[in-house]
Amino acid sequence: MALNNSTFKKIQSIVGAGYCSIKKEDLACYAYDATANRYLPDAVVFPKDAGEISKIIKLANSEEFYVIPRGSGSGMTGGSVAVMGGVVLVMTRLNRIIEIDTDNLIAFAEPGVITAHFHREVEKSGLFYPPDPSSSEFSTLGGNLAECAGGPRAVKYGVTRDYVLGLKVVLPTGEIIETGVKTAKGVVGYDLTRLLIGSEGTLGIITEMTLKLISLPETVRTMTAVFHEVGKAAETVSEIIRRGIVPRTIEFMDRASIICVENYLKLGLPVDAGALLLIEVDGRAEEAESAINRLEELCINLGAREVAIAKTKEEAAVIWKARKAISPALFTYAPDKINEDIVVPRSRIPDMVRRIEEMKNKTGLTIVGFGHAGDGNIHFNIMLDKKNREEVKKAWAVVEELFDYTVELGGTISGEHGIGITKAPYMPKEVGKDEIELMKKLKRLFDPNGILNPGKIFV
To answer: Which contacts of 402-408 are long-range, i.e. CB under 8 A and separated by 24 or more positions?
Structure first.
């Protein structure tokens, strides 16, 4: 299904010569995502609206070439790379916030809007869009929807799918459909909106979305709790939830992540600590103050050696700067990484943290743990040099064992990164044969010619 010159000229006639390219230097810029796996596409195209996308999709069906939708390329599982060649459809020109409806607490936006920009715009109106992936300063809303992104605030507010009311979508056969509602309730027919969220660009291309907003919390309070032992920190997370306290975030950093961020940013982090929790609460001023004081007392009683409550927004920003710097800082350990995002029931977090520590000691590999402990979402990163075959072999054996243990604990092998290409071989560990076959049937129903984002999710 290669792209020939005649077909490329037809694409040019749809979007204009200035919005598509087959130059190798342009293709190279869209050949990878955050996995660093590289697959050179046959062409890169920048459509401006659903109409142009529909025409390209219909052309792909008639002239047999693949189409791969892409936002900012910040995905962690290879979901936006052209594993079988084809046209990468870059959605960055569809970047309008169409409307923020303050009466009905909804917003209409296009998929190319940068997530953090959307946050800031709705907050100007005193409103709040909770989903906040760590990549929010550069990831797009469309990519967030495609992967059903989560983020630190998911412990209290849920994930992306909980804030999507409706969609405008180009199907893999070229039809343009609208799903969902603009209201708080709606149960007419099958919920196509929920089906499309998290489908990783395999069932349709989102061109517009209706998003639910809530009122902006009056006050946010932020604190850190430092522990000598990683196990104590994990047990504290479980106890916070058990006590019925619902912070908006409980972030976790192990010793290795603390050290690498400190070496990277020089913020004065406690490099001798076993673990650090970053906890945030929000709400009315008196509620937030009461909650942060309860959490401070609880952490101390459960073994925290030090607790610090940020006094200003600037102090809180420094704490978050440390947390969001972990991913880039990891490369001070090694040139490559295997990045996984397992989720376990919150009561089993201590078990999983202990198992990761055991694997670290057993293999001698550099394994860094951090993540959204408040909802059981732990990111473990194995730092290595992929040129070292023995190290790579050991690393993948660790992934296999930790995935097995995750499922044994009643968890899931992907909390917010999706499946893409990197996790596809492991999907049968969690999802049964009949369930996978049903998903494949849905894919064939939506995409009978198999032109949209092939090679993803299913092996």
So the answer is: 402/340, 402/342, 402/352, 402/355, 402/356, 402/359, 403/340, 403/342, 403/429, 404/429, 405/352, 405/355, 406/342, 406/343, 406/344, 406/352
Architecture of domain 5-90: 2-Layer Sandwich (3.30)
Amino acid at 153: R
Encode pLDDT of 357-390 as tens digits. 999 999 999 999 999 999 999 999 999 999 999 9
- Asked if 32 contacts 77 with a C-beta cutoff of 8 angstroms, the reply is no
**Ramachandran quadrant class, 362 (left: phi over 0; alpha: psi -120 to 50; beta: rest):** alpha
> What does the alpha-carbon distance between residue 246 and residue 290 come to, in Å, rounded to a whole number?
12
Mean pLDDT of 58-70: 98
Closest to 85 measured CA to CA, from 40, 129, 51: 40
Residues 6+ apart with CB under 8 A from 347: 238, 241, 242
Which DSSP letter does residue 293 get?
Answer: H
Pair 159, 148: CB distance under 8 Å: yes
**Pair type for strands 87-90 and 67-70:** parallel
Distance CA 388, CA 262 (A): 27
Q: Is the CATH code 3.30.70.2190 the one for domain 218-329?
A: yes
* CATH topology for the 333-443 domain: Alpha-Beta Plaits (3.30.70)
Mean of the pLDDT values across residues 161-177?
Answer: 98
